[in-house]
Amino acid sequence: MNPTSTASSAPTAPAPGRWRRFLDSDLWYSFRTSPVAMAAALIAFVCIFCAVFAGWVAPHNPFDLATLELGDSRLPPAWLEGGKWTYVFGTDDQGRDILSALMYGARISLFVGVASVLLSMLIGVSLGLLSGFVGGKLDTVIMRICDVMLSFPTILVALLIDGVGRAMFPDAHETLAFTVLILSIALTKWVDYARTVRGSTMVERNKEYVQAARVIGVPPLRIMYKHVLPNVTGPVLVLSTIQIAQAIIIEATLSFLGVGVPPTSPSLGTLIRIGNDFLFSGEWWITIFPGAMLVLIALSVNLLGDWLRDALNPRLR
């Protein structure tokens, strides 16, 4: 028998699946060998899980007026004198459970943060890709717009959108509040994506695979989104991870100043603003616990962003 035919007829090993390839990747190895990244991921997972499933995890519904008891208002945490284990972190001035309010408030903060980052990413990546690939006058115009947008702070943009929105839609307060937060953050943060993607695209457009695609007649739009875009997503992923934490902090700042979600659907920033009125009267838990929740979410997401930046950088491997 021919040994060549015998070797060719031998069964080949099946190709590893996507999950197996991920477990064997450098990214997963970097994650499981980094205690800081694992701890940050655990904290972020717990916070996000409690926020998303607040309706099932929270011990109370703090915004159901029928269940509120004014007699239980301003109760301290359960481990202090006068506290009740029914309200582990105490209650606010309306008798709402602080722990439950944290879960519901974090859900709103995360929604605004993720939605604004997705919108800014869509705008910034599209304009940056177009600017870096086409170049010329279009590149100059887009970059000058970026320079103009960098001169407007997020708070001023939010106040402008809020004033115009209230004048045009006086009855849509709650819907307007979410729109103001998302638009104000997105309109000031898309510039970072545009500049990052533009720089990476200007490097990629001169490489051989782009030149080969042009020679065989591939349309420029297809080259941008099918060939160039996948090669510039690494910095975008790192930037978006870090900007989620920034967007959550900006949302809390705007809500603290009153340009945010209404008190009927408070986010973490609104809870901190409400608790600030009682901070010096002894009810410190009303504002300290929402502030600690905000710090935990922002810190864990920032640490994950730092780890992802180092893991995707081939020079640090």
TrEMBL record:
It is a multi-pass membrane protein. Gene3D superfamilies: MetI-like. It comes from the Bacteria. InterPro entries: BP-dependent_transpt_permease, MetI-like, MetI-like_sf, OppC_N. SUPFAM superfamilies: MetI-like (SSF161098). It is found in: Cell membrane. CDD domains: TM_PBP2. Its main location: membrane. Residues 106-305 form the ABC transmembrane type-1 domain. Keywords: Cell membrane, Membrane, Transmembrane, Transmembrane helix, Transport. PROSITE patterns: ABC_TM1. The chain crosses the membrane at residues 36-58, 108-136, 148-169, 175-192, 232-257, 284-308. The keyword Cytoplasm does not apply. Belongs to the binding-protein-dependent transport system permease family. PANTHER family: ABC TRANSPORTER PERMEASE PROTEIN (PTHR43386:SF26), OLIGOPEPTIDE TRANSPORT SYSTEM PERMEASE PROTEIN APPC (PTHR43386). This is ABC transporter permease. It comes from Caldimonas aquatica.
